[in-house]
Design goal:
Number of strands: 16
Distance between the termini: 25 Å
Number of helices: 12
Order of helices and strands: HHEHEEEEEEHEEEHEEHEEEHEHHHHH
Shape: elongated
Length: 405
Amino acid sequence: MSLKHILKIIVKHRNISLMILIQIAIAVTIVGNASFISYGTLKNWLIPSHLDEYEILNVYTKVFDKQVDKSALIQRDLSNLGALPEVTQVTYASNELVLATVSGSNQVYKTTDREEAGIENAQFDITSEGVATLGLTITQGRDFYPSEFVFAGSDQSRFASVVLISEALAKSLFGEQSALGQTVYLQRARLPYRVIGVYADKMLGESAVYEQHWYHSTIVPQAHFGSTNVNYILRVKKGTKEAILKDVEDALYQQGGRIVERVEFAARAKKRLWDGRSTFAFIMIGISVIAVAVTAFGIIGLVSFSVSIRKKDIGILRALGASQSTILKTLLIENALLAMAGILLGSFAALWLNNYFVTHLRAQGLVEPWLAVLVAISVWLLSAVAVYIPVRKAAKIAPARVTKT
């Protein structure tokens, strides 16, 4: 049977054909996006953090007593925490903790031009042991001099003048040029800092990771106090047990007027970072499984109904000499054409929906061409299998059974 004749049949039964087409398009849209998001999430899990995740502790505290001298409190905390036998280094962290953004906006700029869009950045404001606590390896330039550290109240306009930046950030800002000696501008105030060193990449910032700038970070030798948040980052000896979490809390509670909100390994912060996205990915997988099942049963039902109202036409074709294989082939080609149209329509819808998720929901599901092709082939095979059962039954219709009515 010619393609032209098959197209005429599709037009003749356009309502059912349209329903099959739409059902396949919806399945491609849902399964496609679920695949992109799930694959993106799983791929991100495999990105190395380069962190000593079980040797770094984040410590979150709040000081609610306004009479407490926070400068003196921080100095005592640094001394008490550093005295714990498992702790090797400790730093006050006035802006970010490892994979836990505390401050809302940490952008980096190349100029003071207000029209320039900033780049997402993890900004760590630290005290003298900060570089060692984070385990950074300086690959270009130098470490901070003691005289470059600034420790001041948040109401004072005192800031450091130098900064260390990660290799990934240096490349994003300056390409193949050397970053040493360049000036970068941090946060919305666009305060200037001169780059004195570049360090090997580590996954440090929660917001930066969310924006897929995995290794963008800056280390600033400044620590401001005054807000209720008084946080620390600790480095402990390799193999330290979780009992250290309680020891840290006890050490901090030696100072009154505060609450210790949380003490955790960087590994826990990283797990929390991925948990939300994993949940979204698994929800999408569940929805896609339901969509595949609904599509399969829907196609079987629609094709069975289509065949039932075309029994007489099929019987006449058989009476005119059409073999079972010819009938089977014709109906499969008819379904294949509908499937191709549905896949094409669903692919466009999937691309639009994926762009919406990435833009508005910060989903990590960029389109992978090979995955899009795999989804299309899978849905096409699913439709072929789903349609084969009713079509094979239709091809066996005896001519005498229908032509005598």
